């Protein structure tokens, strides 16, 4: 997607902050300096700063200027923040937090999905699963279907807060899926685990569904640990998800 001047300015400043160009508590350069640095007007800079304030990266006020907030204040559910972190490098701490979030949210949501999923919900899960299977066997975009499967599970809980969370954590989930997918054989090995979740939800068995999703999350964590140990290059989320090659 092509960004406009405002988007490019937000992207440039946000990525620089997440990469540590300005430490927490440090002030951004004054407006004239930022205008010259970025080649944009004061209006663009001011609007970009407002966007960064909304994302929790900076605070701004009279006489104190614009100061960088500590990472604990950043909105980690904001897709831009996650993308900037992927550019700067995905730390073990970041990935640990992600896996712990999944362990907290998904099992409870899947229990609800097993109780509340509609026929339409289950059909969507089946379609996403078939997309994953097709990508493994014939080649294609596995990650997008994997994301659709997990977001479909959260929507199937039919809890408005969880549904909103499914939108917010999309970039975080994609981070996990892209990393685990880089392990050779990882996508194929995960198919039976996804199938177990699907069957338990379709069969309206909450306990079995919860057990199955925990097994799937733990398997993903092991994949991520193996990828980190191998020192493979980690994905950059501002690029399209890589396609799988057909397995023969």
From TrEMBL:
The keyword DNA-binding is annotated on this UniProt entry: yes
GO molecular function ontology, one term from the record: DNA binding
Q: Does the keyword Nucleotidyltransferase apply?
A: no
* HTH gntR-type domain segment(s): 3-71
Q: Keywords for this entry?
A: DNA-binding, Transcription, Transcription regulation
| Xref: PROSITE patterns | HTH_GNTR (PS50949)
What is the recorded name of this protein?
A: FadR family transcriptional regulator
Lineage of the organism: Bacteria, Pseudomonadati, Pseudomonadota, Betaproteobacteria, Burkholderiales
């Amino acid at each position: 997607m092509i960004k406009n001047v405002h988007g490019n300015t937000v992207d440039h400043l946000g990525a620089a902050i997440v990469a540590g160009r300005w430490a927490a508590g440090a002030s951004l350069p004054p407006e004239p300096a930022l205008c010259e640095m970025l080649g944009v007007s004061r209006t663009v800079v001011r609007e970009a700063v407002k966007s960064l304030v909304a994302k929790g990266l900076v605070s701004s006020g009279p006489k104190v200027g614009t100061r960088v907030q500590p990472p604990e204040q950043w909105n980690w559910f904001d897709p831009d923040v996650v993308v900037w972190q992927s550019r700067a490098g995905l730390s073990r701490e970041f990935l640990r937090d992600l896996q712990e979030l999944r362990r907290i949210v998904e099992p409870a949501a899947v229990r609800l999905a097993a109780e509340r999923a509609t026929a339409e919900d289950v059909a969507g899960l089946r379609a996403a699963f078939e997309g994953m299977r097709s990508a493994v066997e014939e080649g294609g975009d596995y990650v997008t279907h994997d994301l659709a499967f997990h977001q479909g599970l959260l929507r199937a809980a039919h809890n408005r807060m969880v549904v909103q969370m499914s939108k917010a954590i999309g970039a975080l989930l994609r981070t996990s899926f892209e990393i685990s997918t880089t392990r050779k054989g990882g996508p194929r090995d995960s198919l039976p685990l996804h199938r177990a979740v699907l069957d338990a939800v379709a069969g309206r068995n909450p306990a079995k569904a919860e057990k199955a999703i925990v097994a799937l999350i733990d398997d993903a964590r092991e994949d991520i640990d193996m990828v980190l140990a191998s020192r493979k290059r980690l994905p950059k989320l501002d690029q399209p998800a890589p396609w799988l090659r057909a397995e023969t």
